[in-house]
Specification:
Layout lengths: L1 H15 L14 H6 L5 H10 L15 H15 L2 H14 L7 H18 L3 H14 L9 H7 L3 H17 L2 H14 L32 E2 L2 E2 L5 H4 L13 H19 L8 H15 L12 H9 L18 H4 L13
Helix pairs in contact: 3-4, 4-5, 4-6, 5-6, 6-9, 8-9, 9-10, 9-12
C-alpha cells in the first residue's frame, strides 16, 4: 500500500511541475540529439578548438568578453564526450562569473545566457547548483546602470532588449520558473508583432516602421514603403543606418538584434513553446528573408551561426557557412542544429 501511495504521489508531483522541468533535459538542445551528433568534420573541429580556450577570468560586465562562448563550447564537447577536465573548467567558470556583472544590461544580456546553458549541460553538483540558482534568482531584476534585464527586455525593442530577453529566458528556464517564462514569452511575442500580447516598448525614430502609429519590433507581412518591401525589417535597429532610403543600408545592428532574438526563440522552443517559430506571421523567417532578398546582406563573421538555426527550424536554405563562428551570446549551431531541416517542429528531437 505504501509503495502504491508513493507512486501516486510521484505522479501527482510530476504533473504539478513546470513543463520545462519535466522535459528530457537541455535548455538549448536535447541530450538525445547531442548523443547522435558527429565527432568529426569542420564544425566539430572548430568546436573542439574553441573548447581549448582559457576561461579563468569571466567578466559579465564586459560586453565583448568571449569567455562565455568558450565556456559554452567546453560544455557542449563535455556533453558529447564526457571529458572530465572540460566539466571542471565549466564549473570553475560559472563560479567565477557570479558577481562580475556590472556596467550595462547590454553586457549582462550578451554574456549570461551562455553560462546558464553551459551549467545545464554539465549538471552542477548540489552545492554549486544551489549557489548558482541563488545568484540567478535575483539577477534578472538586479539594477545595473539604471536598468535590469527585465526592464531592458520589456522596454528596449532593439539589440539591447533581444539580448536581455535571451538571458532572462535562459535564467527562467534553468530555474523552472514557469510564470517568468510565460511573461518573457509574451514580451517576445509582442516584439515579433503581436501587439495584443505586449506593446510596452519605447521606440525611437520611425523611419523604417511600416506604420508609425503602431510601431513594431518586426514589420508585418506585406509591409511596403515608397514601393519597396519592408516586410520583416527590424525598424529600431535598421534606423541606425539612417532615414529610409533605397537600396537599404546593410545595417549590422539588425543582425546584432537577431542574435538575441534567435536565442530567445530556441530557448522558448526548448521550454515547450514550439509555436514560437510561427509567431508574428513567421517573423523570424521574414526578417532573414528581407536581409537576403532586399538588403542583399547575408550573415557573415560572428553572425554565421544564425542561418543554421533558421534553416533547421524553417527548412530553408539560407547560406550557412561551415565552420561558423559563435556570436556574442551563443553559437556552434553548425554542429548542434545542422541538418534535419524543420525536424524539431515535427517533434523529432
Amino acid at each position: 500500500m505504501r509503495s502504491t501511495w508513493c507512486g501516486l504521489a510521484l505522479i501527482m508531483l510530476s504533473l504539478c511541475l513546470p513543463a520545462c522541468a519535466r522535459s528530457e533535459g537541455g535548455l538549448w538542445v536535447s541530450k538525445e540529439r547531442l548523443a547522435r551528433l558527429p565527432v568529426e568534420g569542420a564544425a566539430w573541429d572548430r568546436l573542439r578548438k574553441t573548447a581549448r580556450g582559457d576561461v579563468r577570468n569571466p567578466d559579465l560586465s564586459n560586453k565583448d568578453d568571449r569567455t562565455n562562448v568558450v565556456v559554452l563550447a567546453k560544455a557542449l564537447v563535455y556533453a558529447r564526450t564526457g571529458e572530465p577536465a572540460l566539466r571542471e573548467d565549466v564549473v570553475s567558470a560559472c563560479r567565477a562569473a557570479m558577481g562580475t556583472e556590472g556596467g550595462t544590461t547590454l553586457a549582462l544580456g550578451r554574456e549570461l545566457a551562455a553560462y546558464v546553458i553551459a551549467a545545464d549541460l554539465v549538471s552542477l553538483s548540489a552545492g554549486d547548483d544551489r549557489a548558482f540558482r541563488g545568484w540567478l534568482s535575483a539577477i534578472a531584476r538586479e539594477e545595473i546602470g539604471g536598468r535590469t534585464l527585465v526592464s531592458t527586455h520589456e522596454g528596449r525593442p532593439n539589440n539591447w532588449g533581444t539580448h536581455a530577453g535571451a538571458s532572462r529566458i535562459a535564467v527562467a528556464a534553468y530555474l523552472g520558473d514557469r510564470r517568468e517564462l510565460e511573461r518573457a514569452a509574451r514580451v517576445f511575442r509582442g516584439w515579433l508583432g503581436d501587439l495584443g500580447a505586449y506593446a510596452g516598448f519605447a521606440f525611437r525614430e520611425d523611419w523604417w516602421q511600416a506604420d508609425p502609429a503602431t510601431p513594431r519590433g518586426v514589420n508585418p507581412r506585406g509591409a511596403r514603403k515608397q514601393g519597396h518591401s519592408i516586410d520583416g525589417v527590424l525598424p529600431d535597429d535598421q534606423r541606425r543606418g539612417g532615414p529610409f532610403r533605397w537600396p537599404p543600408p546593410r545595417e549590422n545592428y539588425v543582425y546584432e538584434a537577431l542574435q538575441g532574438a534567435l536565442a530567445q526563440a530556441v530557448l522558448l522552443d526548448r521550454a515547450g513553446y514550439k509555436e514560437v517559430w510561427d509567431w508574428g506571421d513567421r517573423a523570424m523567417l521574414r526578417a532573414f528573408r528581407w536581409l537576403h532578398e532586399q538588403a542583399r546582406f547575408p550573415a557573415e563573421g560572428d553572425d554565421t551561426w544564425k542561418p543554421h538555426v533558421v534553416n533547421h527550424f524553417y527548412g530553408t536554405s539560407f547560406p550557412a557557412p561551415i565552420p561558423s563562428r559563435p556570436g556574442k551570446n551563443v553559437g556552434f549551431s553548425d554542429w548542434t542544429h545542422a541538418g534535419s531541416p524543420g525536424a524539431s517542429r515535427q517533434g523529432i528531437e
